[in-house]
Model the fold of this input.
Amino acid sequence: MGAVGAILWGVVGISKGLAQQTSGLAPESIDCAYRIQLLRDRVVALTERSPHERADDPQDNVVSNLIRETRTACAARGDIESTQHLDHVARRLRDHLLLRTSEDQARRELLAL
Done:
């Protein structure tokens, strides 16, 4: 019986995680703290991709949209702490994208030699 409970708990957790990562989620359905943890993990995963993995991957835009939606929902609730954490995640994503653009340009220049 314990195994069934553990499996059920896992399925519910996965369902909640997937739901919180859905774009267009109603603002009242957004769990600010949990969604920010998920976004943080997604930004970390984006920073670990190789140039080949990120070539035509829309995840940068997906994550950016989720950050905007989350910021709007959390700010509307007056959740200052979550908004500050989210701003930090957004800054790290922006820094990563700028660095990646610079690296991509350097790679193209080297290949052109």
